[in-house]
């Protein structure tokens, strides 16, 4: 398994891809990913299970979730649209942070597969194909149109996610609705000071149960979840802006530059300054 150092040239990227039957290591990255399967059968591997996708299926991959996909037959290469985007893009969408919930919910709570028979999968496919066509034709205003199709996709994924939570039989024990509101609050306010006691009160749970439920829902502790969101945001600013490292640290919610450097080094293996220097050399 390896970290795929995907660098998004834009906050939003639609790419049509073709893949053969070639075994390879699972990879992970900090971009949010949606895979829209167009032609032939594919195998999607995650850490704990395999999914077998058919044309019309949609797969939602969470940031830092190891995965790969490949064709099931040597004679039939798989064709799909890969949507990659930075979570920072939702700041321009009304209630945008709410639409990110499916990407930050553990697979045990929300399957990455949206099956072709779901009407939401059909809507996602139609929007993705239109988004790719807009980029290919590059008519005036194509980026604005592509952005609108992207919003349609996020809304469809979110509505599918909400329906899944309503269907207790398919999702197992239904999560506490107050805990869902906690996740939404964190997604909206992770750059600010967040008091753990505030989240516990919001959840209407005792402290021990709150931490247990939060980890069940996200696979992370509350502090790990907040830190990961901040580091994702910081990584985008390092790659795409000229802001100083100190500015980025404080803007993303870190109240100590030394703590930010330590967390980033644990996250990427190098310090923020080294990361930016490597990027500069790569772009020259």
TrEMBL record:
Residues 180-278 form the HTH araC/xylS-type domain. The keyword Ion transport does not apply. The keyword Transcription regulation applies. Keywords: DNA-binding, Transcription, Transcription regulation. Signal peptide: none annotated. Pfam families: AraC_binding, HTH_18. InterPro entries: AraC-bd (IPR003313), HTH_AraC (IPR018060), HTH_AraC-typ_CS (IPR018062). This is HTH-type transcriptional activator RhaS.
């Amino acid at each position: 398994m390896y970290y795929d150092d995907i660098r998004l040239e834009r906050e939003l990227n639609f790419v049509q891809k073709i893949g053969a039957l070639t075994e390879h290591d699972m990879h992970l990255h900090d971009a949010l990913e949606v895979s829209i399967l167009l032609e032939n059968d594919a195998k999607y591997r995650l850490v704990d299970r395999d999914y077998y996708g058919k044309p019309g299926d949609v797969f939602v991959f969470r940031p830092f979730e190891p995965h790969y996909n490949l064709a099931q037959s040597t004679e039939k290469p798989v064709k799909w649209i890969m949507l990659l985007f930075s979570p920072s893009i939702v700041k321009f969408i009304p209630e945008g942070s709410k639409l990110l919930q499916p990407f930050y919910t553990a697979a045990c709570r929300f399957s990455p597969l949206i099956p072709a028979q779901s009407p939401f999968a059909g809507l996602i496919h139609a929007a993705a194909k239109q988004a790719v066509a807009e980029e290919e034709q590059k008519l005036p205003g194509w980026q604005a149109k592509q952005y609108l199709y992207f919003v349609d996709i996020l809304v469809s994924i979110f509505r599918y996610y909400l329906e899944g939570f309503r269907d207790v039989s398919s999702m197992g024990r239904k999560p506490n609705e107050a805990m869902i509101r906690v996740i939404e609050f964190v997604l909206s306010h992770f750059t600010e000071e967040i008091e753990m006691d505030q989240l516990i009160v919001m959840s209407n749970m005792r402290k021990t149960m709150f931490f247990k439920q939060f980890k069940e829902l996200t696979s992370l502790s509350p502090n790990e979840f907040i830190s990961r969101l901040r580091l994702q945001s910081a990584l985008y600013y390092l790659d795409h802006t000229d802001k100083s490292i100190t500015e980025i640290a404080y803007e993303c919610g870190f109240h100590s530059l030394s703590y930010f450097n330590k967390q980033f080094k644990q996250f990427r293996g190098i310090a923020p300054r080294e990361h930016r220097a490597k990027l500069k050399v790569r772009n020259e």
